[in-house]
Amino acid sequence: MSDVQLYLLEVDKNKPEAQSIAAQSAQKLESKGLKLVDLITSLEPYINDKTDGNLRAKSVGYLADVLSAVPPRVLSGQERRLLGDFILGRIEGDTEGIGASARALLSLEGLGKWDAETAQRVLTTFVNHANPLRQFKLQTERYSVVQLVDLLLAKYREPMKRLHESDPEFMPSFIAFFEGEKDPRNLMIIFSLLQVPMTEWDIQPNAQDLFDSVFNYFPITFKPPPDDPYGITAQDLKDRLRACIAANSDFAPHAFPQLLDKLDSTSMNTKRDVLQAIQACVVGYEAKTINLYSVTLWDALKFEILNVQEEDLAVESLKALTLLGAKLAESSEGPLNAYLRPIIKECNEHLEDAPTKQSEASGRILYSVSMGGQVVADKVVKGVVPTLFNLYNSSESITKRRGLLEVFNQILRAYVDLEDLQPGINTEAVQVHAGEGLDAMVRALLNAPKAEVSFRLTSLNGLAGLVSVRKALSDTQVDSAVDAVTDIVLHERIEGHGDIRTQALQALTEMAHVVPHAVRDRSVPAFMVEMPDCPTEDAVPGPVLEAFAQLSTERQVFDTVTVRLKNKYNAARHQKAPASYQRALLLGLLYAFTLGAPAREDGVILGKYYTEYAEPLVTEVSNGHRESSTLEIIGRLVNALLRPQGVHFQTNVYSKNLDWMTASSNKDNADISLTPFTLHYYAALRPEVTDAADIVPLLQAQATLALNPASDRAYSSTVLRLLSLLVNKFANPKTMQATLEASGIEVQTLLSNNPTPQATQVAFAIVKALLIQGKTGKLATQYLQVLLDRLATCEKETAHRFTILLAPDEILVKENHCLVSGLYKQKVFNQTVPSLTESVRLCGGANTSETSPASDGVGNKDNKKANYLIALSGILRWLPYSVLEPALGSLIPPLLQTLDLSSPSASSPHQLAEESEVKRSALVIFESVLMHDPRLLEEHVSSLVGRLLGCSSSANPTSGKGAGTKARAGASAAGEGAVTVRAKSLQCLALCPKQFRREKVIPFRREVVKQLLGCLDDGKRRVRAEAVRARTAWLGLDEGVEEED
């Protein structure tokens, strides 16, 4: 069989195989094993079969597939021309296989560019003989034709344009050619190719027909199928269609009337499309065209702004007003004045009634219009601001004045934003009224009643805006504005309603960005006056110092603020000011360098800051000046400045401090009070900076402090964190066990032979460091198992320490160059949770699905089971739900038993707080399960509801009333934890009737509603509120019987 016969046999059954056959024919053409004339001759019986149109189409498809597989330069120019003539001649007499013909022509053009005459003939042939395209039912056929037309208009622009100019009948036929197309893929290309004649040809005689041909598709309502392989979205089609509508100014007489008519649609989506189309038209059409419709457009758009239906529609309308102003500003003043006149008139009318929704909307309108450019903004100022201040001065109403100033602030904001877009704009128009505005706002800020918060805040924002408008104020006026705001920050002392110091400080910071010299010259000295070198203990200016430090968030004044804080600290230290004042000054410096805006190079804070600020403090510490209240702050400051620096810089610092720090860390006379500083100092260092030999003595010293029962307990947690840091970051993972042994903190040794509480604490700190590090898997697993084995015989305190293993720590993080394994939480889960759940099961009482707290006796189990439950809760507390989810089936029974844990009556507040935390952890998990996978809890509904009720009740709901002072003080330490447990259990109870099937919870309705009455009398408002929500949810089940009190 010949290739063509094989192709025709396979094309309907196996398209890839058919294409492979065509490719073989192409290879034969390339190797000269087949002549082109023989190929065409072999097609004749099929391509000329008058009785079978489908056969003719498939034979043309064979030719198209062969040509698509033929490499360049195989066919001569003459052969390509003959093939082109052959295909075009077929189309003139037979349109069967029109898609294949188009594909064949596309392949021919790819083998060699056509001349202008051929390109014109191709387009006219299709337009004259395949018109309209929708007569061909298959989308794939139409798609190939559309691709061919797109190629012609893209690559042969001039020949196509000449064709249009030489034949007045061509354009009507061309427009009709695509009429009625509905396929999104085809429309994407059609909308794109039509932009060539729309933007490059003279289409005035055919403008309406061409516009209608695309506007018929407006608005786009296409919704792509969920499995659409082409990825075409409705937004893609909207963007292309919008570009067509806005392509030519000749469309304006047809576009604007129809768009404005559709703006009255009740569909919000249609309104959005209309507003975006109007914006595109304003940008695309000529200014002289827009001038004809500007007032009409204003009349339509203002309705969407003054009578807001949807906020985004108002925003789009405002954007259109901005574009209108910008477009008309390109032309002479006449069109712009004609556009602005009705806007200014209407806004002025609304200002007379301020404050109203319309006056507020007028402010937005004036801002948006002004954003059209400086010329537009100047005209708005001249037309509105005189009227605005006349109304302001003639009114005694604070409310009206506030509404007017809000509009003025909008105009000022437009100038500020314009300056960002067009640096160096002229602000003379604002200068004329700046003095009047400044006086009004300063008077309002300083003299208005303190209760008029909104009026004073409006004035404050206005001052910041007025200062931000470049050259609007003279230097004297700027000083006046800065002084007024500074005075609020420094001297106003209002608690609660009326306090605007926070906003004033924010305004002062904004001013510092624009006029840093004024803030440095006026505000900073005023702050310094309020911060003496040596205040009395009860006169430390905390609020002033806090506000001054917050100025450091502005880069322009950062260095001024930090230098003044440093000098003030040095003076305070020299004059032996109160320790609380020195501490406050150091906290101000710490705030500046952690939350402020220090200079950076390549994103790294400059090293000079460490040299100028941290190094003198470290020198003081090395000389023995070690105030307990400031050491940690100095350490944190050192950390903030040293941590980002490179290895070379850090090495120099480390070498300079090594001797005195080594002496202070000698295990025989280690200074425990230095530990807070040491912790943050070593946290800042990169691992490669230190020598491993230097770390073992430091570990030994800290181990001595940690294991000594006589050590100051106030520093114990800091010492343990330092041990974790040193082991995680500086100890060599390959020699980890030897390092631990040499330092006296090898875990198995620590936990052998009745370990002390101090040894247990150190063991947990070491295991935490190794788990997070993830480099010593075998050793970490071994140590973790040792801790788990201890649960069978240890005290509850040890079980509670399991929560430390995964608890977040600000020191052990990657930012401090620590080694943090990405999967350490999952590994700990896999190593501990299955073992703990199995241990709980073996202790008995794990089957909780049909038992209640009153009958199962969980609270009376021995210490072993309680330890397992506490340790399990501590581990689960820090794990994300996604990690817990696969194991929830086995976790639910022990978690239910966790809710039954109770403390002895003689428990200390600390123990009570720990027990509350254990229950809270379980309740948080139950809350997540109820929200995400309630089906997992359906078999435990009875147990869950009973335990939640037990946790929600308070033994003394009005605790604190009538009790002695000493008793109340003792209870307060654990009180908040107990309150959280009660509130969380009530939240879970509220979810039960919503998340479980009704038949599962209806049996418990009466009992739950009855018991929740007691929670309504709880002494804590938060608990009472949750009780109301839970009871409402259960009452909603509507059992159908009368509720009994």
UniProtKB/TrEMBL annotation:
Residues 40-307 form the MMS19 N-terminal domain. Residues 544-992 form the MMS19 C-terminal domain. It is found in: Nucleus. One of its GO terms (cellular component) is nucleus. It comes from Hortaea werneckii (Black yeast). Keywords: DNA damage, DNA repair, Nucleus, Repeat. This is MMS19 nucleotide excision repair protein. The keyword Repeat applies. Belongs to the MET18/MMS19 family. Its main location: nucleus. One of its GO terms (biological process) is protein maturation. InterPro entries: ARM-like, ARM-type_fold, MMS19, MMS19_C, MMS19_N. Key component of the cytosolic iron-sulfur protein assembly (CIA) complex, a multiprotein complex that mediates the incorporation of iron-sulfur cluster into apoproteins specifically involved in DNA metabolism and genomic integrity. In the CIA complex, MMS19 acts as an adapter between early-acting CIA components and a subset of cellular target iron-sulfur proteins. The keyword Transmembrane does not apply.
